[in-house]
Design brief:
single chain; about 270 residues; alpha+beta; 3-stranded antiparallel β-sheet; about 20% helix
Length: about 270
């Protein structure tokens, strides 16, 4: 019965973490480029109650008896399916159609990656730089920050196949020779979550692969005037929340029942 108390406790802890994860998904339902996260569980160690050879007559038994000692969280996996494309007019709003990520340079010089295409041009020295809404530079296909001259009217910039175009004196869009960088990963679920919709490379994700340099990759498409919405499915998350709540209640009931059985055992001597 003491074993059942600890088993019920592990179930309650695991389901509490599951509810926390579902709550995070629902909280980010309107976060641009957010990818839903799924909780994975695994069983804990098993305790052998009876071996395969323990019988009253000393005969071999084909099946032993092992009792589980509960559960725990195994991982929280990000699901990188395509989110819906939401029309958001603006010259620096970009939705990624494909597996690519924007490259972002942090203040300490480290490189991060994001699917959030809500970008802006910020004043940087004598020109303007394409950045995130937090002011972090977006990288070009060559791995350098994207900067344009201060006399450029950013509202006239258009993007075709990731390349920036600006109208010439004849109002004909002309390439500016700058292409927004796109990177892919062998295992995007292995990326480290850094917050602010940013990810960083880990051994599990594999190295970042530049689409401009790797001909084996299927190129991502940038769609100007749109943003990629979250891929969180509210109905699914609400169902998952109900299931997690019921599982939490059942594990709580296990602890209550075990406590009552121990109470009955203690009263037998009276």
């Amino acid at each position: 019965m003491v074993r059942s108390l600890w088993t019920g406790a592990t179930g309650m802890i695991a389901q509490q973490l599951n509810v926390d994860n579902i709550s995070n998904n629902l909280a980010n339902v309107n976060t641009t480029g957010y990818k839903t996260e799924v909780m994975e569980f695994k069983s804990l160690l098993y305790q052998t109650i009876q071996t395969k050879t323990t019988t009253a007559n000393g005969e071999n038994k084909p099946i032993g008896a092992e009792v589980g000692l509960g559960t725990r969280n195994s991982s929280i996996t990000s699901i990188f399916t395509q989110g819906s494309l939401l029309e958001t007019p603006g010259p620096t709003n970009f939705a990624i159609d494909g597996n690519g990520f924007f490259g972002v340079r942090a203040a300490d010089g480290s490189i991060h990656y994001t699917r959030n295409g809500n970008l802006t041009f910020a004043i940087a020295g004598d020109g303007m730089m394409l950045t995130t809404t937090d002011g972090l530079p977006i990288l070009s296909s060559t791995g350098e920050p994207i900067t344009v001259s201060s006399d450029i009217v950013v509202s006239k910039i258009t993007v075709q196949d990731g390349t920036l175009y600006y109208p010439n004196e004849n109002n004909i869009p002309t390439s500016m020779g700058i292409k927004i960088g796109m990177w892919q990963f062998n295992n995007p679920a292995g990326l480290k979550k850094d917050g602010d919709s940013l990810f960083s490379v880990t051994e599990a994700s594999g190295a970042a692969m530049n689409e401009a340099e790797n001909t084996n990759l299927k190129k991502s498409k940038l769609i100007q005037g749109y943003l990629e919405g979250s891929n969180v499915q509210i109905a699914d998350e609400m169902v998952n929340l109900i299931v997690a709540q019921r599982a939490y209640e059942m594990n709580s009931k296990v602890i209550t029942t075990s406590d009552e059985m121990l109470q009955q055992a203690n009263q037998l001597k009276r």
